[in-house]
Amino acid sequence: MKKLYFFILITLGMIFYETAHAQLNHLTYPIKRFDNTKLRDHFELNALGKIVGFTGYEPTVHPATVPVHKKTKAAAISITPGTLSTTLTPIQKDTITSLKITGQIDARDFKTMRDNMPALSVIDISNISIASYTGTQGTAGSTVFTYPQNTIPQKAFASDNQLTTILFPTSIVSIADSAFYNCGLTGNLTIPNGVVSIGNSAFESCWNLTGTITLPNSVTNLGKYVFSNCQNFTTLLLSNSLTSISDHAFDGDWSMTGNLTIPHSVTSIGDYAFYYSYLTGVTIPNSVTSIGIGAFSKSKFLTGNLILPNSMTSISDYAFSLCARLTSITIPNSVTLIGNYAFTMSGVTSITIPDSVVSIGDGAFALTPLNSITIPPSVTSLGNGSFDCPGLSSVYVNSIVPIVINDSVGVFYNKTTCTLYVPAGSGTLYQKAHEWKDFGSIIEMAPDGLNELTGKQNILLYPNPVRDGCTINTGENPAMVSLYSLAGVLLMSRQVTDKSYLDMSGLPAGQYIVKINTSNGIVEKKLIKK
């Protein structure tokens, strides 16, 4: 009986002890878990390890009473170059979503942010300076590489889809190749003033950029593919100091809309620079001397009349091909070459080829809605299918001697249903020349100039006869005026607008032919000089 009583007392004592111990543990549990190690993960530390701020700590206790950490909302640190990885704890690197850094950093710290901080989406490095670094621990790869100071390093955030926002340092002068290639940056992008160059593919395939990309006037150089395939931004503001627009710079940016003004500082536009854009208009200044292959190809919303600068000497292959809504192009009399397929499948309904043009390439105007074309006497070469236009019904050639096209195939679409107009007295030559002889009808243009080729009635030429010159009134329409002798020899050619004076004081008395070529068509008139 005593043994049983003793056993019951021991059992009750053990139950009481365990209950009291559990209650005590419950009361002290937050204190035991809220130790220095856990605190450290949620304080802001400077370069010396001193606490400079507190980011907040709110442990969540699940029903099983296991505490877990929420993702850190923000952290701010001040470091020296190459120390970011050791300054942050593993938990901080895994959980920080927003990071502000002051002090100095280098390519090693960019690599830490890119490769070892999977939750990091917002970066503020506006108050840091970037130090140079040479070694194998940077962002470009495992080989020895030199990263210059004040430069966002090569591949700094390449393929970092978590990154959405970055505040740039005001001290940077360049952004290196592929720095933000295929990263997750969102919204507008404003490059800080002071940046001079932006490298190849620096922002290529940043699909989440929307709104406006602004390049400050400090930028003078853009690398190839710099903003290629950024498919969702709509507006581009270019630097007024930019000297060239590189190959493929904005290739595939098919959400870029509106009118684009190329700055007067630009001298060249590279190959496929604006391929497949949604621009509705573009203004190209006279500073531009070259437009590259396919530069505006497939810009299917370019509309109206495009005026090319008088500083250009050639139009490159495919430059404006597949621009279906582009109905008219003004080619300056400085251009000598129109490249292969330059305007193929564009919407051009009328075009004036100036007397400076010597060569027209393969398919240059193929599959356009042109129904009439005038080929000036300066042209000596026509490429394969250069005027392969299904609707072409009339061709006017101002060369007395037919252009030799023996080596070209199918220059014109269907010659049997097209009328060829040639200078007076040259019909026999054309009837014997290769390909020219295949036209269904060959008509010599009357030397008296009474053929109004398009029936235009609103062009005035007075006085006629003349003594020293005459006035040509085109009704505010720009026109190319050419003066020929009766033998078909070109004597002068010039661009006019509205009322212009044609000086003939240096020419002998006699009869002349004036050809007036506007976007609405062509008029020929006889002019008598006393």
Overview of the structural elements:
The protein has 530 residues and is mostly beta strands. It folds into 4 domains: 35-172, Ribonuclease Inhibitor (Leucine-rich repeat, LRR (right-handed beta-alpha superhelix), Alpha-Beta Horseshoe), CATH 3.80.10; 186-290, Ribonuclease Inhibitor (Leucine-rich repeat, LRR (right-handed beta-alpha superhelix), Alpha-Beta Horseshoe); 303-415, Leucine-rich repeat, LRR (right-handed beta-alpha superhelix) (Alpha-Beta Horseshoe), CATH 3.80.10; 460-529, Sandwich (Immunoglobulin-like). The protein is 12% helix and 32% strand. It contains 6 helices and 38 strands. Strands 34, 35, 36, 37 and 38 form a 5-stranded antiparallel beta sheet that branches. The longest helix has 32 residues, at 2-33. The chain is elongated and about 95 Å long. The relative contact order is 0.04. Residues 1-12, 14-70 and 448-457 have low confidence and may be disordered.
Brief summary:
This protein has four domains: 35-172, Ribonuclease Inhibitor (Leucine-rich repeat, LRR (right-handed beta-alpha superhelix)); 186-290, Ribonuclease Inhibitor (Leucine-rich repeat, LRR (right-handed beta-alpha superhelix), Alpha-Beta Horseshoe), CATH 3.80.10.10; 303-415, Leucine-rich repeat, LRR (right-handed beta-alpha superhelix) (Alpha-Beta Horseshoe), CATH 3.80.10; 460-529, Sandwich (Immunoglobulin-like), CATH 2.60.40. 12% of the residues lie in helices and 32% in strands. The radius of gyration is 37 Å and the shape is elongated.
Question: Keyphrases for this structure?
Answer:
530 residues, mainly beta, Leucine-rich repeat, LRR (right-handed beta-alpha superhelix), 4 domains, 5-stranded antiparallel sheet, 4-stranded parallel sheet, 6 helices, 38 strands, 32% strand, disordered N terminus
